[in-house]
Amino acid sequence: MQEYWIRWETWMRQHAPKLLNILNPGVTYEAVESLEKLIDSPLPADFKAFYAVHDGQRKARTGLVDGDLLLSVEDIADNWHYWQDLLDAGTFTYNDHPIASEPDTGIRSSWWNPLWIPITSDGFGNHLCLDLDPAPEGHHGQIIALWHDDNHREIVASSFREWISGYIDAIERGDYVFVKKWGIVHKGTSFNYND
Question: Is 191 within the bounds of a domain?
Answer without folding.
Answer: no
